[in-house]
Amino acid sequence: MWYFLNVIFNILNKKIYNYFPYPYFVSVIHLLVGVVYCLISWVVGLPKRAPIDSTLLKLLIPVAFCHALGHVTSNVSFAAVAVSFTHTIKALEPFFNAAASQFILGQSIPITLWLSLAPVVIGVSIASLTELSFNWTGFISAMISNISFTYRSIYSKKAMTDMDSTNVYAYISIIALLFCIPPAVIVEGPQLLKFGFNDAIAKVGLTKFVSDLFWVGMFYHLYNQLATNTLERVAPLTHAVGNVLKRVFVIGFSIIVFGNKISTQTGIGTCIAIAGVALYSFIKAKMEEEKRRTKVA
Question: Where does it reside (predicted)?
């Protein structure tokens, strides 16, 4: 379901940018729809709202900031380049996550796992050099998103010690929305009021415009909620790898839906990156199996 909802979100999101290229505002809408969903869920008691104190709030603020920054920069990248290219760049997330896990959390990452991530870096580099839709705005934004979401995963894991993942993500969404509104108003506000909204409505009509924004926000919230529920059950690094495998589906479907043309080298680079993730998954699974056997013994 995490993969399925994410594919739908990415396709609908890119379709919106094709006629409404305002990623800061769209980012706000994504979060706003999710916040309304969370508030209604709390009112009906599904789930019951968990109380929040100042200590937990201090933990969630940096998580929400990283979530907001990663979300906005992802959308800036989606608006600037092909969906498939953004997700190829974001395949580097396990590399950033491994570095953060070792140097920030103090977890020991074996050399074999580091080596398995090398093909991911090499593959992404090859794909970037030959990507037909390449531009620096899309590339740099996707890289910033990688770093932001890495820290979000790590800090989210710490915050989940006192609260279930559904409530954690609800609070993160509310705080992240507050972070996203000011830059949207400052960066895109004047353009939206002058011609942004009018141009979009002229192209697709008011009903479709509003409907698209609502559904893209709903799919965004639901796929992130499931991703957070998954993170509650696994380590941040493992979650990052699952995130990369998800990108295989997104890349494939985006190429089919939008008819994106990719060079042979881009295709090869993407395959190398995915192969690196598969190698990592195999090594990681083998290590975890050995740990279980040792405990049993």
Answer: Plastid, Chloroplast membrane
